[in-house]
Each structure stands twice: as structure tokens, then as C-alpha cells.
Amino acid sequence: MALQKYPSLFLDRDGTLIKDVGYISNPGRVVFYTCTFDALKEAQQFFRLFIITNQPGIAKGIVTLDEAITVNTYIQSVFADKGITIESIYMCPHAKEDKCHCRKPKTYFVDQAVAYYNLDVQHSFVIGDHPSDILLAKNAGMQGIYVLTGHGKKHKKEIDNCVIVKKNLQYAVDYILKRVQL
Ligand SMILES: [Zn+2]
Asked: At residue 5, does pLDDT exceed 70?
């Protein structure tokens, strides 16, 4: 018998789950979108949840690695208090010009998660407000859903017409759940 594989959602952090307020160095600046908790409670009935976030503020010296980890830990704990399990938060601390191996749209963290958690790539999604999230999905063989929160509106013209675009995380999750329940 084949091992069960888990479909998953790879969620962007800033501009997708929480408001994009620039480089966040302490939990006091974290503001969740009002729809985030309900959307993820529904989503986790069918999907394992992961966060992948690019945090170039670390490379630029604006946020320390410790501060960024503290913010991520806080976010994960708020979700846990609401009964939402984020399996792992993956963070690239580099800037674009560092040409690192882990910054989205590179699939480094997705590959790690797929291997470690035995994920079902074919039935997994990436949700985010930046074209790199859509490109990550494409590179990883998943479907990307683009949301118009955060920087979504600003960069919309950079994404292909065929990409699914939703108003926010709740609409993105609704769309996905409709498809998996068919
Ligand atoms: Zn990196």
C-alpha cells in the first residue's frame, strides 16, 4: 500500500496572511487580515499548511535574524491558539542581489517540505500577493493563486492572464475548496 501523501498550501506571509507594513522586527507590528483565521481553519481540513517568506530586511541589516524568528514564532503561536497548525515557517533571509539558493521563486523550501512531509505536489497550491509566489508554484509543479491584498494590486500587471486572481485569502481558499470537494 502506498503511503498517504498530503496536499498542502504554501502561504506567503506579508500581504497574504498579515498586513504588509514593511520590515517587521517585533510581534507588536503584526496585524492579521480579518479573514485569515477562518480561511485557514477551513483550509486545514484538507491541506497541510506552510508559510514561505522572503525577508530581505535581514540581509539589509534592518531586521536581525533573531527578531525575524521571534516574529515568525509569534505568528505560528497565534495560529496555534486559534487551533490552526502551521507545520513549518520557511524564511529566506537574503536579498535579491545575494542570488541565494532559497529565495522565492526558487523551490528550495518547497522541496524540503515535500521530502520531509511526504506532500502531494500535484494537489498542492501556493497563495501569495507577489509574482514570485506564482512563479514558485510554476517551478514546483503546483498551482498558484494570486491575491490582491498586500502588493497584489501593484504587481498584478506582471502576472499572466491565465493565473487565478482572488480578492484575498478567503476567496482563494474558497476557490480551492470548491475544486477539491468536486
Ligand atoms: Zn535565501
From this structure: yes
Check residue 149 and report its DSSP letter: T
Q: What is the pLDDT of residue 180?
A: 82
Domain extent at residue 171: 8-125+132-180
- Backbone dihedral angles phi then psi of residue 56, each to the nearest 5 degrees: -65, -15
Return the percentage of the chain with pLDDT > 70, whole number.
97
Structurally, how many domains does the chain consist of?
1
Cell numbers placing 105: 521563486
Please give the Cα distance from 99 to 84 (Å, whole number): 33
How far, in Å, is the centroid of ligand 1 from the Cα of 98?
Answer: 8
Coil, strand or helix at 24: coil
Helix-helix angle 169-180:36-43, to 10 degrees: 20
91 domain-assigned? yes
Enter the pTM of the model: 0.95
Residue 3 in any domain: the answer is no
- Report yes or no on 13 lying in a domain: yes
Summarised one tens digit per residue, pLDDT across range 23-54 is: 999 999 999 999 999 999 999 999 999 999 99
Ligand 1 is a single-atom ion; what residues have CB below 5 A from it? 92, 94, 100, 102-103
